[in-house]
Amino acid sequence: MTVAVYRSTPSPLHAILLAGTVPLFLGALLSDIAYFKTYEIQWSNFASWLMAGGLVFCGLALVFALVNLIQADRKAGRPLLYFLLLLVTWILGLVNSFQHAKDAWAVMPTGLVLSAIVTLLICVTAWIGLTNLRSEV
């Protein structure tokens, strides 16, 4: 039994972009929670800007993930799962951004739910994307 290690760790810039999305989307979720509790409109504005930053970072990480997927020896398994999760996260983040573009009073509760889903997805995606891939051969 031989253990082969497939290095699928991202490049340093890719890792920075991927890791940077987590606090941005988490900050948007926390801002939505603060808005839900206080109804101070500025919290909704903060969430919108944090989501915009998260979408930029996530989109750039998505480009790196696509290039890595194209260059990968195996087009299935973990590299494909990572790319698809990142793509779904970006799409739901964009939908959430459109939701937050509405009037501040119309954002809740859909914006809060979408922010929670996007934050959970980006945490799982970052975990998968930043860990080494080990497989027994």
From TrEMBL:
Signal peptide: none annotated. Residues 11-130 form the DUF2231 domain. InterPro entries: DUF2231_TM, UCP029509. Pfam families: DUF2231. The chain crosses the membrane at residues 12-34, 46-67, 79-98, 104-130. Keywords: Membrane, Transmembrane, Transmembrane helix. This is DUF2231 domain-containing protein. It comes from Oxalicibacterium flavum.
